[in-house]
Structures are given as structure tokens and as C-alpha cells.
Amino acid sequence: MDSVVCSADELARLFGSNVTNANAAADFICSRFNTSDANFTATRYAVDNTYLLFSAYLVFSMQLGFAMLCAGSVRAKNTMNIMLTNVLDAATGGLFYYLFGFAFAFGGPSNGFIGKHNFGLKAIPSETFDYSNFLYQWAFAIAAAGITSGSIAERTQFVAYLIYSSFLTGFVYPVVSHWFWATDGWASAFNTDNLLFSSGVIDFAGSGVVHMVGGIAGFWGALIEGPRIGRFDHTGRSVSLRGHSASLVVLGTFLLWFGWYGFNPGSFNKILVAYTADSYNGQWSAVGRTAVTTTLAGCTAALTTLFGKRILSGHWNVTDVCNGLLGGFAAITAGCAVVEPWAAIICGFVAALVLIGCNKLAEKFKYDDPLEAAQLHGGCGAWGVIFTALFAREKYVAQIYGAGVNHGLFMGGGGRLLAAHVIQILVIIGWVSVTMGPLFLVLHKLKLLRISAEDEMAGMDLTRHGGFAYIYHDEEETQKQGIKLRKIEPSSTAPNNSSTV
């Protein structure tokens, strides 16, 4: 929305020679006009920044969702531990993203690989970024770290959490976000000189940038640590170590659902942008469409998982449905702003099948991820990247990224965008593997990664955090049916009224 300039000289000529002091009148009118125009410009910045801040608050609320989901998905004896790690993901990520991460991600002008300006938010606010941009991007960074914490839950030393979270939010994730989101990133659709077929990657809210990064990092952590004790019996058969609270899982899922309305629609960063002369056609409409596609993908994935797991296991399992719902959200995140609502239904349906298939592969190869985070965010995130390359609509792509960016294969755009997205998947897998894999391996070699078998059996709440979150008996012999909690009432001893003679 460009400002309109009022010229006093041009206005004075319109008054003609009969107008007394035409120049003075023109100056007066233009001064009032320019003042009003400046106020409208300030209002636009205020509206857009308020919208971005509100979206940042929604994304940050997802941390509570992650905490509740993780707490409900682990056994009761590790509840304090997993909730503390979620708190520290946000706190540690806040400092490291402030010091390094935001600069590595968006510190331009820079090269295509990594940003190099604005460390510690130097020179912020500027014409390009305000503090609201930092807050929003920080909320994304800690979401990636929260994904990883779920994969290595119930068996990881506390110091390892601090080290990996700092490294992920301060360096690994920001570099990936620079590649695909910064205006000078080598694969960014916002960069007209990008190296991917002169088109770049359409990963609007981060199926690859956020979900794949967190999921792949969690995959390496869980793989190097190995499965939890009792997860597979001596014959290699899978044994279910169920979380202790389906109620917390459902609560966390709904909080994540709510926060996703900041995660996906909020990624526009601004809302007061008109697309055409029609007063009703603007970015505000695209924001609403993005919320709709997000909703439909999640709902379809939840229902597909419900019936799919019913066929496979014979049960209507609420935990599986919640994971399916989140898998649909992770998948639609890349293309939420550039696809039609009907395409989002296809996205959610396939995402549920991808999640079920990844979980089957995890059992086959004895891979243990307590929250299915690597399968959900890594697998469904990768599908979301491919889905976008197939169904992105030309009109929506042009509105957001401008002319020249390729659209989906199935929408008449050819295969260039699909090729770019396959490259995106490969480079994310490669980058996270060569950074986070060696980090977890070094921690493992230094015996800083996994807790002892004794501590794992007793539970980290007791051995590492000073006590249990609940008073309960952990009956290990009932693991096949999940953890059973039984309240322990304080024992009361009758007073001894007899006296000693």
C-alpha cells in the first residue's frame, strides 16, 4: 500500500488565477492531506504488527500444548522431567535465538547460506524487521526444539537437553530458515536470484523448515540412544509403554490446534494488503482461507486415523486420533496458503496413511519414539512438502510470492516446483543429519546422553527432580495394558493409649 504524495505546485495550478493566494491554499491542503496519509501509513504498520504479535502469542501457546501432550504421553514417573524440558526449550531457545539465531536466519544483506547481521537484535527495529518479527520467529524455533524433546523422552540426561536445544535453536534451525524464508536465501521463493530453477521452494509455514528439522533431529537422538527399557521384549516383539494420561494428551492436542491458527495464518506476517481493486479481495481473505485449509487437513487426518487404526488394532484409540490430527496439521503447514480447501482434504488423508506407515516401520526396525515425533513431524512434514509441489495454485502463489514462481504439478505448473521440493527434503535431511547426528553421538560417547538403567527404571522424577509429580504405584508387570495409577492414601496409625508402668 503506497503513500500518495500531494504536490502544492500542481494543486495551485488547478485553482486558476482568480484564487487569492493559490500557493498558500495549496500548501495548506497538501499539509493536511500528507498528515492524514502519514497517519494511515502508521495505522497500517500498527495493524500488521498487532496481527503478527497476536500470531506470535498463539504460536507460543503451542508450548503449553507440547508440554501437556508430552506429559500425557510418558509414564507418570517421568512427568516432572518432560515438563521441565519443555519449559527450558522456551527459555534456552529465547536467549540463543536472540544472540545468534535471528541473525543467522534473517540477518541480511547476506549470502545464500547464512545471515550475518543483527546479532543480539542490533539495528532492530528497521524498515524490514520489527521486534514482533523476532518474537514470532523465536516461537517457531522453540517449536522445532519441542518436537525433538518428545523423541528422546524418558531416557535422556538433563544436560543433553540443554546442549541440543541451544545448538538447534541457535544454529541448525536458523540456517534452514534462512535458506527457504529469507529474501536472500539460496532456495527462497522470495529471492529472485535463487538457485532452485529460478523459482525456489514454497514452504509457507514450515512443513520442512520446522517440522522436518525437529523430526529428523529427534530421529537421530532416539536412534543413537536406543529404545527405552522394556519397549521390545527378548524376542524383539513390540511392547506398548503407554502414556499415563489420555486427558493430558487431548488437552495438549486442542491447545496445539488452537496455536496452529497462529502458526499457519500468522506466517503471512501482515494482513493489511490488498490484492486487487476489489475491496473484499486482500490478504485478510487469504488468512481466512489458510485457517480453513489447516482445519480441513487436520480433521481429515484425524478421521482417517480413527478408522485406519480401528481396522488394524480393533480399537477406537483417542491417542492415535490425536497424533493423526497433528500429522495432518504438520503436512498442510507447507501449502496451507496456496492450495484450495478441497486439496487440504487430500493432504490430511494421505498424512494419516504416512503416519501409520511410519509407525509400522518404526516397530519393524525397533525404533522407539515415545511421542511418534520423528514419524509425525518428519514423515508427515516431508509429505506436506511434496503435496505443496503437486497442488499449489498459480493464483495464490502469485499473490504471495509474485510472478515467476512455479505452481503445482497437478495444477498445470509442470515439474519444476516438485524437483525443487525434492531437493529441499534432501538438503534438510542432510543438514540436520550432519549437525545433530554427530552432536548426539559425541554426547553418547561422553556418557552425557542417556541416563543409567537404574535411574530409568526408577523414573527420572525421583532420581533427577526430587520427587514424583503424582503419588502412585508404577506396576511394571502391567505394561502391556499401560501404566496404572493407584492413589496411595496416607497411612494412619491408631494412637497408643496404653501407658508403661
From TrEMBL:
Please name the InterPro entries in this protein's record: Ammonium/urea_transptr (IPR029020), Ammonium_transpt (IPR001905), Ammonium_transpt_CS (IPR018047), NH4_transpt_AmtB-like_dom (IPR024041)
The annotated topology with respect to the bilayer is: Multi-pass membrane protein
Localization in the cell: Cell membrane; Membrane
User: Entry's Pfam families?
Assistant: Ammonium_transp
What GO cellular-component annotations does this UniProt entry give? plasma membrane
Which UniProt key words apply to this protein? Answer: Ammonia transport, Membrane, Transmembrane, Transmembrane helix, Transport
Residue ranges annotated as transmembrane are 51-74, 95-114, 134-152, 159-181, 201-224, 245-263, 342-362, 374-392, 418-443
User: Which intervals hold domain Ammonium transporter AmtB-like?
Assistant: 51-470
Q: What GO molecular function annotations does the UniProt record carry, in alphabetical order? A: ammonium channel activity
Q: Which PROSITE patterns match?
A: AMMONIUM_TRANSP
Q: Which GO terms describe its biological process?
A: ammonium homeostasis
Which NCBIfam families has this protein been placed in? amt
Q: Which family does it belong to?
A: Belongs to the ammonia transporter channel (TC 1.A.11.2) family.
Q: What's this protein's name?
A: Ammonium transporter
What organism, scientifically named, is this protein from?
Answer: Jatropha curcas (Barbados nut)
The upper taxonomy is: Eukaryota, Viridiplantae, Streptophyta, Embryophyta, Tracheophyta
